[in-house]
Amino acid sequence: MTQNKVALITAGASGIGLAIARRFLAEGLKVHVCDVFANGIKALPETLPGATGSVADVADIDQVAALFDDVERVYGRLDVLVNNAGIAGPVSRFEDISPQDWNRTIEVDLNGVFYVTRLAIPLLRRAGGGSIINLSSTAGLFGCPMRAPYVASKWALIGVTKTLAMELGPEQIRVNAICPGSVNGPRIEGVIERTAASSGQQIEDIRTSWTEQISMRRFVEAEDIAAMAWFLASPEGRYVSGQSLAVDGHTESLSSPLD
To answer: Could you tell me what percentage of the chain is helix, strand and coil, using 3-state DSSP and rounding each to the nearest 5?
Structure first.
């Protein structure tokens, strides 16, 4: 039963987060999203009717605290957390990455998960259990040249997922990671453009090269990620925990950057 259950989705005003929010609403959950972009939250009545939202940067511990104040005030409970917020980080050789770019990627993609999840756990515990879904990446399963801080954070999320599943399993809180491959949309197009600029390759050549590393020869859609998130959050996923589930059309190799 999903009636009265509440989901919080970080970076939920666009892209994968928005697709997950729409699916959860369609399945009967109440949904609260946060996003760093105020315009995305202002547009929720049109883009995500029925959802509520907060402007919050998950890398800012005070903004995360205010986000949970909003969730408590509006709903008074939490049953599902989707840690979706993340940035692509720099496309650069390891020695050329600036400390500022490294730190910002880790702050959003890893520290943000810590800041959000530590406040979500007491609410999930109070609800008698629930589901935490971390958005890792195929980059969390492979090495990926030119994307070191992104890869570091996504590998770390796999370890966090396994550890939290062990800690929280006795309280019926399930923790899983979804590992998307390259997801169609503006973000992957931006990564392709930056890769082309740094490598001197043509954009179409890069796109072709990346799709040839996927058995199904196409990028995944945000709705495919949302379908997996719903399964993990739903009663059908009630005995799935501690898993890292690739939704990527089967990545055969990863010799180039991805989303």
So the answer is: 50, 15, 35
Within 10 angstroms of residue 159's Cβ, the number of other Cβ atoms is: 12
Residue 258 near residue 190 (C-beta atoms within 8 A): no
In tens, the pLDDT along 68-81 reads: 999 999 999 999 99
Residue-wise pLDDT for 158-186, tens only, equals: 999 999 999 999 999 999 999 998 887 77
Give the dihedral sign, CA 256/106/113/64.
negative
How confident is residue 128, by pLDDT bands cut at 50, 70 and 90? very high
d(CA 148, CA 141): 13
For residue 228, which amino acid is it? Answer: M
Asked if 4 contacts 30 with a C-beta cutoff of 8 angstroms, the reply is yes
The Cα-based distances of 86 to 18, 177, 225 in angstroms read 14, 14, 15
Active site residues: 150
* Burial (Cβ within 10 Å: 0-12, 13-18, ≥19) of residue 6: buried
Concatenating the DSSP letter of every residue in 116-151 gives HHHHHHHHHHHTT-EEEEEE--GGGTS--TT-HHHH
Is pLDDT of 257 > 50? no
Domain boundaries, the chain: 6-247
Q: How far apart are CA 26 and CA 22, in angstroms?
A: 6
Helix (H) or strand (E) holding 63: helix 61-74
Mean predicted confidence (pLDDT) in 189-215: 78
- The architecture of the domain spanning 6-247 is 3-Layer(aba) Sandwich (3.40)
3-state class (DSSP) for residue 15: helix
Q: Which residues contact 132 (CB under 8 A, 6 or more apart)?
A: 80, 81, 83, 117, 120, 124, 164, 168, 173, 174, 175, 176
